[in-house]
Amino acid sequence: MKKPTIKDVAKLAGVSFKTVSRVVNGESCVSEQVKNKVQLCIEQLNYQPNRTAQVMRRAPKSIAFVYDNPNSHYVIEMQNGILSECRKKGFELVIHPTDSHSEQVKKDLASMIGTNLIGGVILTPPLSENNQLITYLLNLDAKVVRILSGSQAPDNLSPTIYVDDINAGQKITNHLLTCGHKRIAFIGHQPSHMSSEGRLTGYRKALATSSIQIDENIILPGEFTFESGVEMTNKLMEKKPRPTAIFACNDEIAAGAIFAARLRNLRVPEDISIVGFEDSPFSRQTWPKLTTVHQPNADIAAKAAAFLIDLMLDVPCAKPKSYGFQLDLVERDSVFQLAD
Amino acid sequence: MKKPTIKDVAKLAGVSFKTVSRVVNGESCVSEQVKNKVQLCIEQLNYQPNRTAQVMRRAPKSIAFVYDNPNSHYVIEMQNGILSECRKKGFELVIHPTDSHSEQVKKDLASMIGTNLIGGVILTPPLSENNQLITYLLNLDAKVVRILSGSQAPDNLSPTIYVDDINAGQKITNHLLTCGHKRIAFIGHQPSHMSSEGRLTGYRKALATSSIQIDENIILPGEFTFESGVEMTNKLMEKKPRPTAIFACNDEIAAGAIFAARLRNLRVPEDISIVGFEDSPFSRQTWPKLTTVHQPNADIAAKAAAFLIDLMLDVPCAKPKSYGFQLDLVERDSVFQLAD
DNA sequence: AATTAACATGACAACGTTGACAAACAATTT
DNA sequence: AAATTGTTTGTCAACGTTGTCATGTTAATT
Question: Which domain holds residue B150?
């Protein structure tokens, strides 16, 4: 029941084990005849090269996905995107949830890299905004690709996948404006969170190009959670005059906003329009369904993985590349067209 | 910049590399004095044993989590539970989403095992119900732990973590009964799905011990999705007399049921009570919040991982062990107490 | 026919670790 | 003091692969 090795194949085929190695790795300089014979023996024994031994002579074929994010949809979509790319290229994925506030991340990653377990890392916000961490990993000889919010890569420390939250925030705010809304609140602002910041910047830009004055009183800070959405909306509903629309910084907050509005016997969207951001499964499971911005997480992650794997395989492209994603609006049922 | 090896440490400490190996692995038979010196050198060089080389001499210290489940909360919770156990024991996790209907799973797993990448597998439903797959993996010399629905392990092919859906289904049905409901529908039955089957069995048991006749017309088959919940509830609302309560097979279906009821201007729970199953984040984000059954996915998964790791480490326990989980009711706001 | 080049194959070391065994040393018993 | 035991340390092979280099074979050129 022991696993066949390259030597078993060689013995069966009557060639040296090095020749088998050549066949396995598709090197040239092997005659058709021998190649066929070896291939036959490989199938007969169901031989599979021992990855561990391969990695010892070459380089790790595993990457790590490091995240600090309570949003399971986001994580799963990212993970699936990365995985699909890994499968194509014969790489493996090591998952590493973490607490970005602790120094532990650094230690854990250093250990995975130092022990030759992985050769590269995909970083998502807020980890991806930590240049100190990135430099540290780079010094450890690891490859790094980061996913960031922004309309361009901030530097060329490492290849970057950037997602244009600013533009998307502007788009969805413009949509509300077009529907006749004049008093639009923004909830879920987190100054330390680049995506949140970007969405707010887009909101401000859109209002700035309209004739509407920005009212800082209806821009509320808060977490990216349902509970926080409820809380912020409660606060908001006390303001006079009451906003006619709410731009929630993500779908979960938006779901909370709907819940809170409902508790006050307000109709959504007739009495209050609410938009989300991300197009998570949530947005289709609220009542009414959310108008939101589609964020193709799996595609974003796949792109990051593709970059990382290229980097590890040393595809001749010395300079770190970067790539940007623009996001699209998806109109559903949570925005009311005001008559006027 | 090259990573230090055991030999570098040995040279620095002035001992043989084998002695360093002994210190690293905490073997006895090393004098305090030498041990301390070596330890100092290890720290100085920041030496970390090369996992790849270790695995070559010992056994893989990675396990795979294989799932075929569209429910991200479930997957993430499972994953986190497994990961927490892996961390403790110094194991790594390889993630493997799959399509259980394809033969590909078998091939992929065979490859991961055959190439020495992993040494064990955690299987969730429906993969865990596939005895043919389990036997296949066992023949490949892999260790297997499966997570199943049931009130006991069905056989001792492999250690099993079983979750008592029957008992839980009975509990929550009894809760509805206690609240005075006499016409209770069951939606989301999937005959091929053991959990679903178990929950329905619990429902039947509960009704059987009450004086209420089971009406097969209000037991509806369907998928575990929001959309299916909407659809089934629409059908249900046509039945005469209309049920006063719905037992949805999971929270997502229940969320769909609430949505559908709402569209018909029915109040939840006053006009119709709805319960879910799983206690996913969903259940706290519907309006009203769902009464449901708490399923401690992370704990279940952690237990499975602990079993698997024990198995791989050959902790002397020849016979496969098994472990069962009982589930508890969580009462929230979606059940109405009928007066009578 | 002899020389060269190109191709095909094989021998062997190396990767960094652990396990089996042997050697050296110290402590205890005869 | 010699013999026995036990503890500490070292030597070497092995794990399964790939890289380097040498050798053998064939075809092309002189």
Answer: 58-164+297-327
